[in-house]
Amino acid sequence: MRAFSPLTLCLLLAAGPALAGSDFCDSGGGKTEPPDDSAGVSAKASPTDPSGGSCEANMIVTNQAQTAGNAYWRLRDLRYTSANMEALKGFPGWPELPLCLEEVHLPSGTASLRAPSGVIDPPIGEPAGPYSESTFLEWAFQPDALEIGERVLALTVMVDSRGTYLRADWLDPPTRDWSYLNGATPRTLSSRTVRLYGSGQAAPRRFTLLHDGAFVRVGLGLPVSEWISFALPNAQWHPTRLRNGLVKGSPLTRGMGLRVGWPSVSLGTLDSDGPDPSGPGQPEPEPPDPSGPHTD
Asked: Are 235 and 112 in contact (CB under 8 A)?
């Protein structure tokens, strides 16, 4: 399994004193109009709206000064508190929660799918040969107090020489409040990989998260052309945490990472409980060493 180097994780988890707020979003406007998936047209940029604007999670590696106007890395760890639930219910399209994969910058292939006889020839819609990947979202669900356990939807972007892919994994973690950052390996109950676009293309792609009774679904496209569905044990399971951040993947260097937009979310409306281990007064992190650890 691929993993970030410790220094890369420091960048991921670090948020300077200037970013000590609790907003789930990055500051400033950005792309407010969703892309047309069928035409492959990028979203139009709009000026910053100080009273609201679009919600974006910028996960690009940088060693620039940690100020509100610069790209930076941190976790957005949204807990499903009563206050956050009230805000979510007020967003357009609720209970659907759309997101847009706006930018993907991953290294050239660093891993290979191999069998004893050589490289596996997987079905169309999966990487073949060297590829890179980054897991950027974990959506956790737990039952009521009378039951135990947890289920997690993990979304991963994968890139090879032929194109860019999205993998949705339905996981049974070993403990509650689990994350890939904990290091423990979950059991994969189901997995689905779809091709987003071919090599050389980089149009944003729209997805939709939906908790629909006893099912958790990922919608593809705008409008949704296909749903990837995973079954919860029963309808008594509810979302508890939505984590947006690069939690596992190929080692990254400066300028690499992902940018995710949340079209229906307004700035300043959702509290983020993501950890900030750096704390005030910590030195500015340096970019990860490209020759750093490449294996787990």
From this structure: no
